[in-house]
Amino acid sequence: MSKDLPNSLMDLFGELDGHDDKLGSVASALSVRLGWIIISLQSKLDVKSNLYQDVSLTYLFLMNNLHYIVKKVKGSKLLGLLGYGWLRKNQGRVRQYAENYEREAWMKALNCLRDEGIHVRGDFSSGVSQQVLEDRFKGFNFAIEEALRKHSGWMVPDLQLEEELRISIAEQMIPAYRSFLGRLRKYLKSGSQSNMYIKYTPEDLETHLLDLFHSNPSVSSRTSEISSRTSEISS
């Protein structure tokens, strides 16, 4: 999501808040009208999401906007019109969009941390291909930098959703990187050349991930908590 929610969503729920006292009956004309507007908005969001060339940002856009709709419906009398089935279905869609976003945005970096193709037989006494290992570190650095650059102008307006998403990303990335680095950095050439390939410590990576989505200053106070959680996962 860019800096602002679509005006149509803001206008809709501004209207809803202003007329909430008229929604006592789910049969009222206003209730029915607003219900259909919400359903129509969901369809329009799907269409608008196709304008993004990057698939990960498509899912982030859908997650943000559908979460906004779900939250507003849940806190209003429209829930009586749309029903708990609608609520559960769309809460599930929000979670699925979040999972799809994480996969599309961060899997490229995670794939660089796999062992497949690094270990060889015969040619190297260490059993590790120096070239493949160097390429993996370079690929990881590039993927992380690309992802961070791509997300610099995006945000998750809901603070709870923002934190959950950030923690989920950190819990996938940090233990995997820490383990990869701990097992294989010794096979890189020593000295200044190794610094060409290892641009991030696990702590550096964590700091960058915690700054995603224009996080609030209070986020830094949660760093130690997340660090302990990711350390437990990697141990």
Question: What's the structural blueprint in terms of helices and strands?
Answer:
Elements (H helix, E strand, L loop, with lengths): L6 H12 L10 H21 L5 H20 L3 H34 L18 H21 L8 H26 L7 H6 L4 H9 L12 H12 L1
Helix pairs in contact: 1-2, 2-3, 3-4, 4-5, 4-6, 6-8, 6-9
Polypeptide structure, described:
Keywords: Exocytosis, Protein transport, Transport. InterPro entries: Cullin_repeat-like_dom_sf, Exo70, Exo70_C. Component of the exocyst complex. One of its GO terms (cellular component) is exocyst. The chain has 235 residues and is mostly helical. It folds into two domains: 7-97, no CATH class; 112-234, Monooxygenase, CATH 1.20.1280. Helix content is 69%, strand content 0%. The chain contains nine helices and no strands. The chain has helices spanning 7-18, 29-49, 55-74, 78-111, 130-150, 159-184, 192-197, 202-210, 223-234. 24% of the residues are buried.
Short synopsis of the structure:
The protein is mainly alpha-helical and 235 residues long. Helix 1 (7-18) packs antiparallel against helix 2 (29-49) and helix 2 (29-49) packs antiparallel against helix 3 (55-74). The chain has helices at 7-18, 29-49, 55-74, 78-111, 130-150, 159-184, 192-197, 202-210, 223-234.
Which fold name fills CATH's third level, the topology of the largest domain?
Monooxygenase
CATH architecture verdict of the largest domain = Up-down Bundle
N-to-C span: 35 Å
- Helices and strands, in order, run as HHHHHHHHH
Task: List segments where confidence is low: pLDDT < 50 over at least 5 consecutive residues.
Answer: 1-6, 18-27, 215-235
How many helix segments?
9
C-alpha Rg (nearest Å): 23 Å
How many DSSP-defined strands? Answer: 0
Estimate the strand proportion: under 5%
InterPro entries: Cullin_repeat-like_dom_sf, Exo70, Exo70_C
GO biological process, one term: protein transport
Keywords: Exocytosis, Protein transport, Transport
Family: Belongs to the EXO70 family.
